[in-house]
Amino acid sequence: MEEVKVVVAHHERATLRVGDVFLKIDTDRARADVEAAAMAMAPVPTPEILWRKPPVLALAALPGTALGRLGEPSTASAAAWAAAGAAARKLHDAPLPPWPGRSPDEVESELDGECDWLVTNGVLPTDVVTRNRRIAEAAIRPWKPVFTHGDLQITHVFADGDEITGVIDWSEAGPGDALFDLATLTLGHEERLGDVIAGYGADVDLDVIRAWWSLRGLRTVRWLIEHDFDPWPEIAVLKSRL
To answer: Which GO terms describe its molecular function (predicted)?
Structure first.
């Protein structure tokens, strides 16, 4: 009998692994619909959908291992990081998905609310929040929407040697800022940014990527705390901006 392993679980959804099958349980039908549709549209490798019976989505395991984890050194090769950048570029060059994404105004409104919460609840020193909010301002500008993954953190990108074998967790996919994906991919791994950009094959605004590092951290810490995850890696990135 296969062992059931809880991969991740919080108040919104859970993922279980049974052998080589992952079972994603999400009671938000709209979010689950986005994930399934995005994987079908994405021009990069994604897990095979074995079956779907809402609220459960069954996915085949990907070969290889994740590029790394936030807060830990990555053992993936420079070529693998460059391949991740190339995969991001291929996604961003694809046709837009038909559902709407967030506007810069919506992002800014959410950011201001999160900053107020962090200070009011004493989660972070005021100077850390203020400094990162100032840096984040560069990301809040008009952007040309592209097909973004929306949560392209390194634990969601799998590689086997120097090759990308797939990208998981597409529930946040939609039209968005290309530099947000690149920033999410390199969050906490600034030393890998050059490899990613080399694979991406286009000029990017490094100040905007750094701004997204700060913005993502400010916007994520509260969610992590409220869902019983350790926010320390994101907090460490925010404090490093001082």
So the answer is: transferase activity
